[in-house]
Design goal:
single chain; mainly alpha; 10 helices
């Protein structure tokens, strides 16, 4: 059976294997991948009410961001709202997405990031410039978000400590030994004493 596959403006033709015939596939669920884009998605299906991105959006929307807004002057094209960029960064920090390029990519790939960006896609250079420009204010804003999350019972207070100790190790195959060999050496050392 000859099949024509069309993706975007590219077309490919190939012969289908008899193993992948329609009869062998009929015992499985039929999935229409194009149906996802034929109807508008329900917002609550894509991003549930209790989702972390909705929390971040709600908190940042209610914050006083006048310190950010006062830094903008009226020249050039319209900038992204500071609340939008700040929401992206806060949610990015929480989900361990730190790099500006990864944040930009997430606005295309992740429903949560897309929701926070209002279906817009800030360029990585815009994100990097925003972070650089308002670096001093980030710490206070992030603390406020954490405080609100704590008061709402979404996070717990605790101590997170990191130890910067560096320990020299040798994990080469010549230095490593099996447990059985280590026991054998231990017995030998005990005999030699």
């Amino acid at each position: 059976m000859r099949i024509t596959l069309k993706v975007g403006d590219k077309t490919a033709r190939y012969t289908q294997s008899p193993l992948l015939s329609k009869t062998s596939m009929s015992k499985f669920r039929d999935i229409d991948n194009d149906a996802v884009f034929k109807q508008a998605p329900n917002e609550d299906e894509c991003l549930p009410i209790g989702h972390l991105a909705r929390f971040v959006h709600g908190v940042v929307k209610q914050m006083d961001l006048s310190a950010f807004e006062s830094e903008y002057v009226g020249s050039g094209s319209k900038p992204y709202a500071p609340a939008t960029l700040l929401s992206l960064f806060i949610y990015g920090y929480i989900t361990r997405t730190f790099a500006s390029r990864k944040l930009e990519a997430a606005t295309y790939d992740s429903i949560a990031f897309r929701f926070l960006a209002g279906n817009m896609h800030p360029d990585h250079s815009t994100l990097a410039e925003f972070r650089k420009r308002f670096q001093g204010l980030f710490k206070d804003i992030f603390k406020q978000v954490l405080r609100i999350a704590y008061e709402m019972g979404m996070v717990k207070k605790g101590l997170v400590a990191g130890d910067g100790t560096k320990i020299r190790a040798n994990a080469s195959k010549h230095a490593a030994m099996s447990y059985a060999y280590a026991q054998k050496l231990e017995v030998q050392l005990e005999r030699d004493q």
